[in-house]
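note to self: dont lose this again. the chain is below, predicted strucutre after it. 144 aa total, dont forget to put it in the shared folder this time
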Amino acid sequence: MQKGVDFVGMSVVYFCHDGKGNFVMGKRSLQARDEHGRWDIGGGGVEVSDSVEQTLKKEILEEYSTNVLAFEFLGYRDVHRENQGVKTHWIALDFKVLVDPVKVKNGEPHKMDEVKWFTFNNMPAMEESHSQWPEFLRLYKNKL
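---
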C-alpha cells in the first residue's frame, strides 16, 4: 500500500524563514520523487508513529540540518496531483517555521541539488518552482 495513492497521505509543508524577510528553498534533484530541477520550500509525509509536530521537526532537521525555533500552523490543503500517470491525493498541513539561517545547509544532497535563501523580490520563477508553490503563496503570502 502506498500513501497518497492507495489511501490519502498526510504531509507537513514548511516555509522556513529567518524572521528578516528571507526564506529557504531546495532545488529538487533527479533522485527526488518528482518535480526534478524545481525549487521547493520543503515537506514530508507523516508516519503512523509520529505526531505532526514531531514530523515537522524531524523533516526540517533532515532536509535543512537545523532545528525549529518557532512555528505557526497556517492551514491545510487538499493536494490532488498526478505523478507519472498515477493520481495522488495528500492532505498538506502548512506551516511557517522560524529557523537559524546560519545553521541551514543541505542535509539531503541526494534529494536536493542546492539549498538557497530567497526573498519575495528575488524568488525563482513560478515555472522553476514546485507545482504547489503558487497555491501556497496565494493562500498564505499575507501571513508570511
